Description:
By secondary structure, the protein is α+β, with helices and mostly antiparallel strands. The chain is built from 3 helices and 4 strands. A 4-stranded mixed sheet has the order 1-2-3-4, covered by helices on one side.
Amino acid sequence: xxxxxxxxxxxxxxxxxxxxxxxxxxxxxxxxxxxxxxxxxxxxxxxxxxxxxxxxxxxxxxxxxxxxxxxxxxxxxxxxxxxxxxxxxxxxxxxxxxxxxxxxxxxxxxxxxxxxxxxxx
Length: 121
C-alpha cells in the first residue's frame, strides 16, 4: 500500500534561496517523513549565521495523535546540517513507532492486569 505524498515546505532565512538546496531538502525530508505514522505535513527551515559561519537546518514533522517531531542540525555546511537533522529525526521516528506498538490499549486485558497489580491490597 503506497502512502500519499506529504507536503514539504522549505523556508530560507538570512540567505538567498537556491533550487539545488530546496530540491535536496525536499528529497531528504520526504523520505523520512513518509515513515511517520499519520504524518500530515513537514517543514524545514534553512538558515545561515554570518557572525559564526554556521549553517542550521531545523526540521518539523506533524504526525498522528498530536505528535510533533523537531530536530536541528548545525554545521559549517548546509547539506551536512540537513543530513544531521534528518538523522536525528529518523531516531525520533524509530522511538515513536516503538512507543505506539508497545502501548497497551485502554480496555485490553494487559491494561486491566496492570491496574490490578498497581492497586493496593
